[in-house]
Amino acid sequence: MPKPTLPFPTATAVAAVVFGLMGIVFAGSLPRLAADDRPDAQGDLQLREQVDRLIDQLGDPSYAKRIRARGELQRMGLLAFDALHAAQMNDDSEIAMAARYLVESLQVSWSTEDDSTDVRQILSEYGSQSEVERKSRMDRLAALPDREGLAALCRLVRFETKLRLSRSAALLIMQQPIAATVEGRRRNSAVIEESLGSNAREAAKWLNLYARDLAGGEYDGPAWRAFISAERDRVASQTTRSSDDLAVLELYRICAVRAAEFGLESESLDLATESLELVESRKQPLRDAVEWALDHKMWTIVLQLLRRDPSDFKNDAWLSYAVAQALAETDNEKEGERWVAQALELAPLAPLNEDGSSPMTADARQQATQRHLLVAMELVGRGRFDWAQREYRYVIDRCPIDTSSSADARWKLAMIQSEFEQHRDAAETLQPTVERMKIDRDFRRIVERELIYSFDDFEARMHYNAALGHLQAEQPEEAAEALKAAIAADPLDGDILIAMYRYPGDEQWKRDTNRAMRTALTEFERMIRDEERQIVGINQLQRKRIISHYCNQYAWLAANTNGDLKRALAYSRRSLELTPKLASLTDTLSHCYYALGDYDAAVRTQREAVALEPHSPPIRRQLEFFIKKQQEHHAKQNAASDDS
Hints:
The chain is mainly α. 71% of the residues lie in helices and 0% in strands. The chain is built from 33 helices and no strands. α7 (131-143) runs parallel beside α9, α15 (283-295) packs parallel to α18 and α23 packs across α24 (441-450).
């Protein structure tokens, strides 16, 4: 949940921090307010004058004065950080060297009392970590929900001694989704400005402009252009490429996205086009650039990159599909289809022999199939289910039935078909694998060793989809038999139990279904308790995921049947606390709200699920359903109000 914005301590309050012998403990930061706007303005002015005087003394001819000034500045610690950081570039080499030493020697407690437990944990011993680990910690702060790590990231922008890490923290802040409400944007703006204080670092200047844009609900294009120009000039003066190039590239992209948000399409495209000069002619930078363009629907950027070096695209299936999508979105579907056909053959699989065996060696076949399966998963993530299905069918058609690759492709193809409510097709896709596993124990062991699905999973899902297919064909008796077979294969499958609950069976059917649901719900709670009782160890992340999974399973089943709805809501919320920002868990939470009659919360939460996984057919269908029910509910409320 979002934390309330608390006022930062004043400079006078910060000055009261106790500095231990082992290091300097940071308890706050200087607010960024005009001197005459604060009750302690005079004290702040005196503090700045004192710091400036001590910095001047670092270059004093008297050795004793230099040592005293260094000692005073060390005791002041982070109160003097901004001025010391600027002094590293002082024309007086003695002052610059002493300032660099002092900046590097400051030992910071990077978290504050106001930080959440997660933030404090991420920042634990931050200062002793390598640059790679520090950047990883920044990424984790940026990934926290509701901008929980915003103040901490601002702190890193201001006090991180490595310039590139300071810039990385600023870029992470600006890459985060902007708050949906004016109040939220202004609150975030205030946190940024107060956290940065009067810091004059370049990254802090970016953030201060970003904060002003947030507060004013605008995009100051000329000011951002000036920053980009300054950064490009600085990078151009370097003799070799460095990580600063990437910072400029990200700055370009952030500005392009923000310009587009304000309807400045031409400016956005110009910025994106100019940024291409900074994209290196190597595979990964190219893929990153293409993925960014696809994410932001900048199809012409993909085609510009193609024209720059077509060979990179022709030899990479993922990039070929990217071109196909860009062409399709720019009304050139025929040419796009040519790229799709080309992509499918980049990792060729030989047709099977008449006896169903493959003429390829096992290693060659496995390498090729893995490339197709990986590309198919990426296509699903981009919402290109049609192309993904072609990839899965290609693997199915050209891999022997008794291979894990064939089983994996069938499972994933069936999941797509099921999401599009093609249930009979899904059942037929799974059936050959199920029948083979029934008679071939070696194949069953291979599947269960190499994949995450068991024989019971395959059998349960085959019968479940068959049941839904029978219901679509208005064949209730066949559907009932298929549901019985499905629940026998997997008694804890919530989807099967929900289908049984909704099936219009007789009283015995209802009793059996209720008994099966109670058993499953009890088992989910038992598994949650068992996981919670486990001794704390090094694999806490995995334990959180397991507990979250069972919480979600309980909530999903209870919310869609006649379970304890309040408990379902609590478990659903907990699942998201343990593993936030997952579309499937957010979808479950919206079902809980709907079951409790809170239609507004259901719609709001389902919109969040769609934002997390925008291409999911069932999640999008559910949003449409919830919106319809919300409108009907409000219409009834209005009618009742008119009658009264």
